[in-house]
Amino acid sequence: MPAHGDLVQIRLGPLRAWVVCHPDLVHEMLRETRTFDRGGTQYDRLRLLMGDGVVTCPHADHRRQRRLVQPAFRPSRVAEHTRLMLDEAELLCREWRAGQEVDVSAVMMAMTTRVISRLLFSDSLDAATAAEVRHCLTDVVRGLFLRTVVSVDAVFRLPTPANRRYRHAVARLHTIIDGVIAERRRRSADAPRDDLLETLLEAARDDGDGVPAVSAQEIHDQLITLLLTGVETTALCLASAFDLLARNPEAAERLHAEIDTVLAGRPSLAPEDLPRLAQTRAVITETLRHSPPGWLFTRVTTRDTTLAGRRLPKGSTVLYSPYLLHHDPASFPEPDRFLPERWLPAPEPAGSRAAPEPPATRGPQPTPRSQAALLPFAAGSRKCVGDTFAVTEAIAVVAVVASRWRLRQLPGPVGKQRPVVTLGPRSLVMTCEPRARRTTDAPAGDAPALRAAVALLAPDTRTAGDNGVDDT
Questions:
Q1: Per-residue pLDDT at 367 exceeds 70
Q2: Number of folded domains in the chain?
């Protein structure tokens, strides 16, 4: 599409739409949230599933909703949950055996479900319910993409097996969320919890001075929205990372060497180690560039406007694709190659007094164009509220797994990814190979460093171009 211009007109069935192909224009659109609001078939269908939560709500209500859920994703809270992320990854690694074939996609989904459910509603989901949530999410995601691009409702009312699975999965998710809320209302006074559900319930309590800040329906919508968006996207990022590392052994060797250096003979990683995992951070950033889970998004114009010199009438559908932007050679040379070194610090200039960095940690500084083109979490005031949480979780999990195992691809051709509402390997089976660590001495990290590092990921709603991934 970029060969046809920076703004390309296409047709989606009977609808005319515009695809934005230049990063500067995407940022212009994402800054103007009043004019380019979330909408179109994609968000119309998502609202049927999620309601009007922080992801799908219109611009007029977004500021209030974001302020409500943002405290759960502040850097200080993310730092508090880092121990949980590391522990969940350790438990996962202990279940594997040498030579075992593991469905990496499935186990990552199971783990991210446990982590996000602890953030949202502590330990309210038992193991069986968490497994059911995971299966329901799989069926929902499979059926959702077609519903976001096909505007004919009658197709989805047919009693086909796929439609029945989708409707059943959606109904079960809503029932499970309602049950968690009802159970918490009964027990909240006796044992208050420190989670997002408790925050929402507190805001919903009428203290006698008028209407509560949050309705019962909004509590439900926020929980199901964050559950749907916080599980699969992170799981797909992790599965993609292990897939790409297996196909790029040099990048995997540099990752393993870094982790061995940071561990310095200790049996497991600590939260304080994360700020020193520059190579691991680069692996996650490059994974989000190479295979962004959120690969296509829509906006709708709320008034007549112009973009790239083209007049767009009110109600126009505008699309942008992080995958397209991330694979533009003008922003990322050799875009199809997996090169984590794109995101590593540049070498010190000649004559610098600073100690030289090891060769494995050197790399080119990202250009302004590549910084602007990297948009795995969108940008502006509607940047993903959980970006800090997701990237920290991905770094923690990759580091723990790589400290113990090397995941190998099975013999045979690699299956091509099939994009649905998200992008990534959905049935990635790999073989576990234990790895011996190389022991080296390295200074220990500290808790303030972790908090400072996590703080750098906090979204700045005043800046459209700061995606934050490279500043983990």
A1: yes
A2: 1
